[in-house]
Amino acid sequence: MQKIAILGAGESGVGAALLAQAKGFDVFVSDRGSIAEKYRQQLAQAQIPFEEGTHTLEQIYAATEIIKSPGIPDTVPVISGAVERNIPVISEIEFAGRYASGKFICITGTNGKTTTTLLTYHLLKSAGLKVALAGNVGESLAGKVLEGGYDYYVVELSSFQLDNMYSFKAHISILLNITPDHLDRYGYKMENYAGAKFRITQNMTSADFFLFNQDDAEIMKYKASHEVPGTQMPFGLKDSDGLAIQFQDQLISASFSKIKAKVDTSKSPLIGQHNQYNTMAAVGAALLVGIAPNQIEEALGTFQNAEHRLQPVGEVEGVRFINDSKATNVEAVWYALDGIQQPIVWVVGGTDKGNDYTPLLPLVQEKVKAIVCLGMDNSKILAAFAETGLKMVETRDVNEAVQLAKDFAEAGDVVLLSPACASFDLFNNYEHRGRSFAQAVATLKSTVA
């Protein structure tokens, strides 16, 4: 019996363990941290051996293949040791892909991939297709493959997941944008990070489709050096020859293959230019699998985006509060600021990821009336916007941040939490930060009611 070692016992690791066991492998799960109770119970119930708080190397290296969590860098000793021993290291997506009978619609990009993934899934689900949602969006693809019965899998892929995928093939792959992010995992070289993103096109044939944002300069720069075997379908807002999908005046026009269609997006709740790109990609995928334009239009109107992505969380005395905690880099914040038309009090800060705030300056000067820094070290943000002359304050308390922002705002304004930074200085993760912000808004609302 072949042995598989799984590193990391989160959603993807446990899903991979259960699928591997079902396929007859001898499975061992190892997590250097602590395992959440729900995952511990799943492993115990399946009688899959596991450990936490350590890596027993002789157990791990006895495997013929290792499946690792995307959060584990290739540079850690347990992985480099496996490579030295010529033990293949793969991702859960790669493993699950071997056993799936349906077609994969895969989405990546620095920003917007979760929204696009959820929207694509919603469009297919609303049309009655047998479709599963999986990947970086928080669902195990291996778990969905184990369930079975799906004709399509809509999969959000991070660069970390793509790094350890080799034979996996998407039927429809979507690349939304490429901007600097996670460069510490890629030797601080953009070409390495871009290379990871372009892995989404690997193994495609001319019967498969590659949808990409032609307006994104980094995609076009790196596309020239990457062979893409799939049928290429550029989408964009700018008038350009050869666009397969174009967005103008709330109308998406598609012209590709044997499809010529127009889709009205006026019922969509998504705001901002970035969501026009996300919508083009999702609508393109829906058209490719045969969904009629009128069905797409109806489904657009019933879509609800994920939490922490330009999510309205309350209104206090005419001031709207928007939780965009998922905006952990400068590009995501740019889209948020660009998409909101009302005056903004901006709540920003956290763990800086090597940000260059310069691209935000014009939008901040045009739209922002005050800045509230919510973080342990705000010096870089304060310096970046010092010359704007805006009022800037600092706090390490989310309740105080919400109160300060409300004090700066007037009825009709928007208080926007769009941090441009990771959350780990004051919070467990961006979800914790977003929920804390929403709770602080609810608390404030109750005190002024």
UniProtKB/TrEMBL annotation:
One of its GO terms (molecular function) is tetrahydrofolylpolyglutamate synthase activity. ATP binds at G109, T110, N111, G112, K113, T114, T115. The keyword Cell membrane does not apply. It catalyses: UDP-N-acetyl-alpha-D-muramoyl-L-alanine + D-glutamate + ATP = UDP-N-acetyl-alpha-D-muramoyl-L-alanyl-D-glutamate + ADP + phosphate + H(+). Pathway: Cell wall biogenesis; peptidoglycan biosynthesis. InterPro entries: Folylpolyglutamate_synth_CS, Mur-like_cat_sf, Mur_ligase_C, Mur_ligase_C_dom_sf, Mur_ligase_cen, MurD. Its EC number is 6.3.2.9. One of its GO terms (biological process) is cell division. The keyword ATP-binding applies. Its main location: cytoplasm. Residues 107-286 form the Mur ligase central domain. It is found in: Cytoplasm. Cell wall formation. Catalyzes the addition of glutamate to the nucleotide precursor UDP-N-acetylmuramoyl-L-alanine (UMA). Belongs to the MurCDEF family. This is UDP-N-acetylmuramoylalanine--D-glutamate ligase. It comes from Rufibacter hautae.
